[in-house]
From TrEMBL:
Annotated EC: 4.3.1.3
InterPro entries, sorted: Aromatic_Lyase (IPR001106), Fumarase/histidase_N (IPR024083), HutH (IPR005921), L-Aspartase-like (IPR008948), Phe/His_NH3-lyase_AS (IPR022313)
Record's comment on post-translational modification: Contains an active site 4-methylidene-imidazol-5-one (MIO), which is formed autocatalytically by cyclization and dehydration of residues Ala-Ser-Gly.
Pathway annotation from the record: Amino-acid degradation; L-histidine degradation into L-glutamate; N-formimidoyl-L-glutamate from L-histidine: step 1/3
Reactions performed catalytically: L-histidine = trans-urocanate + NH4(+)
Family: Belongs to the PAL/histidase family.
Cross-link type 5-imidazolinone (Ala-Gly), residue numbers: 142-144
UniProt-recorded name of the protein: Histidine ammonia-lyase
Gene that produces this protein: hutH
Signal sequence coordinates: none
Modified residues (2,3-didehydroalanine (Ser)): 143
Keyword terms of this UniProt record: Cytoplasm, Histidine metabolism, Lyase
UniProt-annotated location(s): Cytoplasm
Recorded GO MF terms: histidine ammonia-lyase activity
């Protein structure tokens, strides 16, 4: 299936479908006219005597060096090869393809000055599944994601490495095997390919989508925990949240009311319960998870704008028939969005970890056995599973520290303030993995705790969630080798299986 894209109006949902389903993407044919018009402006500038940055000059600190017309093609090739300085492991194929799609969208706005041939090759590489090998480290998130995008562009000129049919091979070999040919870059085309925020934005988008799946899972696991400790649903009353007015808080409270509706466990202690209030990790779930929901949506709107943006330099203003240098390559908006996502991930995990600690502690769990094991003492139950969640929570707290405040000058002080958006976005992968594990352990604890409340039963939606969990991870009767169980539970969180089983669906994109 091919996703047809209209640059400037591509939605988060379209991009997520491309990423999750491995869809191919092409620009709407209406893009060709403005693309060709911008290319003509660049071609005219390249043939002139006036020095135009990125067209017939050096780059960065070398912008004052004029390049002869007959060397402009070599200039662009040299630019790509010299900037292939990425290090570290390769970016995964799905995120790399998303990065390529984002580059397509940016070039398709008709302000980058590339020929249609460049766009065509990216589209064909997506269609033929030729995926550049892109090392994840090397970008500081200003002057574009230079090193990562250079590794993408290298394959387009027959250099670098690519994955084709599951094998890593030279870029040239991959193109040939797919029936494609490398391009010879024209004026400004190399710069247009490597200037931009597409690596950072792709990584941030993946972090956002995985964080959203985790957030929805937290709504479910939080409801399981509430019933397991026989917590009150009074703090979920709609009027409380309407009086405060935050959309996410209202939505989380509504979702948890629906998830717990009809629980026999809840009904059993409405009267005569000596506890006046539950701890904050139970009582304040809508306030914390809801605030994280609002933050993720805010970051999502920023990233949607960025996904549709032109972020290379210089830009071709066709209507004015001129080429203008600017700074759209600076990824500060992406860095801020990634930092916001990181804070949300850390806080969802922090409050979930406290719910895990609550359930394994017999002094706080309202008569559940210590560490949720039928024979405490002989068995340690989920004692160390809780410790693991504490370790992961702590790691996420450290990783949540802002990256955008850590600028450092580069390129002989020409690029003297940078965003660090690339590793701000990359670290979201680790944080989401940690959060999925925390929530997986919470699901195990919640299901175990609810089982101890028999013959009372939980609500139908939560029964469905527990039943799905138990298809993969059996109840803990006696101590066993737990690591595989924790991993299996985390995978049910990561892929949204537990959320689907509970019948929950909270949209990332909303009308507001």
């Amino acid at each position: 299936m091919i996703q047809v894209l209209h640059p400037g109006a591509v939605s988060l949902a379209q991009l997520e479908s491309i990423w999750r389903e491995g869809l191919d993407a092409r620009l709407d044919t209406s893009c060709r006219e403005p693309v060709d018009a911008a290319a003509a402006v660049v071609r005219k500038a390249a043939e002139g005597e006036e020095a135009v940055y990125g067209v017939n000059t050096g780059f960065g600190k070398l912008a004052s060096v004029k390049i002869p017309t007959d060397q402009t093609a070599q200039l662009q090739r040299n630019l790509i090869l010299s900037h292939c300085c990425g290090v570290g492991e390769a970016l995964d194929v799905d995120t790399t393809r998303l990065m390529m799609v984002l580059k397509l969208i940016s070039l398709g706005r008709g302000a980058s000055g590339v020929r249609w041939d460049i766009i065509q090759l990216i589209e064909d590489m997506l269609a033929q599944k030729v995926t550049p090998v892109v090392p994840v480290k090397g970008s500081v998130g200003a002057s574009g994601d230079l090193a990562p995008l250079a590794h993408m562009a290298a394959v387009m000129i027959g250099e670098g490495e690519a994955v084709y049919q599951g094998n890593v091979m030279s870029g040239n070999a991959a193109l040939q095997a797919a029936g494609l040919s490398p391009v010879i870059l024209g004026p400004k085309e190399g710069l247009a390919l490597i200037n931009g925020t597409q690596f950072s934005t792709a990584c941030a988008l993946v972090g956002l989508w995985n964080a959203w799946t985790n957030l929805q899972s937290a709504v479910v696991t939080g409801a399981l925990s509430t019933d397991a400790i026989m917590g009150s649903t009074a703090p979920l009353v709609a009027d409380i949240h309407t009086l405060r007015g935050h959309a996410g808080q209202i939505e989380v409270a509504q979702a948890q009311r629906a998830l717990m509706d009809g629980s026999e466990i809840r009904e059993s202690h409405r009267e005569g319960d000596m506890r006046v209030q539950d701890p904050y990790c139970i009582r304040c779930q809508p306030q914390v998870t809801g605030a994280a929901m609002d933050l993720l949506r805010f970051a999502g709107r920023t990233l949607e704008v960025e996904a549709n943006a032109v972020t290379d330099n210089p830009l071709v203003l066709v209507a004015e028939n001129r080429i203008v240098s600017g700074g759209n390559f600076h990824a500060e908006p992406v860095g801020f969005a990634a930092d916001q996502i990181a804070v949300a991930i850390a806080e969802i995990g922090a409050i979930a970890q406290r719910r895990v600690a609550l359930m394994v502690d017999p002094t706080l769990s309202f008569d559940l056995p210590p560490f949720l094991t039928p024979e405490p003492g002989l068995n340690s139950g989920l004692m160390i599973a809780e410790v693991t969640t504490a370790a992961l929570m702590s790691e996420n707290k450290h990783l949540a520290n802002p990256c955008t405040t850590d600028s450092t000058p580069t390129s002989a002080n020409q690029e003297d303030h940078v965003s660090m958006a690339a590793h701000a976005a990359r670290r979201l992968g680790t944080m989401n993995d940690n959060l999925s594990m925390i929530l997986g352990v919470e699901a195990l604890c919640g299901a175990q705790g609810i089982a101890f409340r028999a013959p009372l039963t939980t609500s139908v939606p939560l029964q469905h969630a527990i039943r799905r969990l138990r298809e993969t991870v059996p109840a803990l009767e006696a101590d066993r080798y737990l690591a595989p169980d924790l991993q299996s539970a985390a995978e049910l969180i990561q892929n949204g299986t537990l959320v689907k089983a509970a019948g929950l669906s909270l949209p990332l994109e909303c009308a507001s």
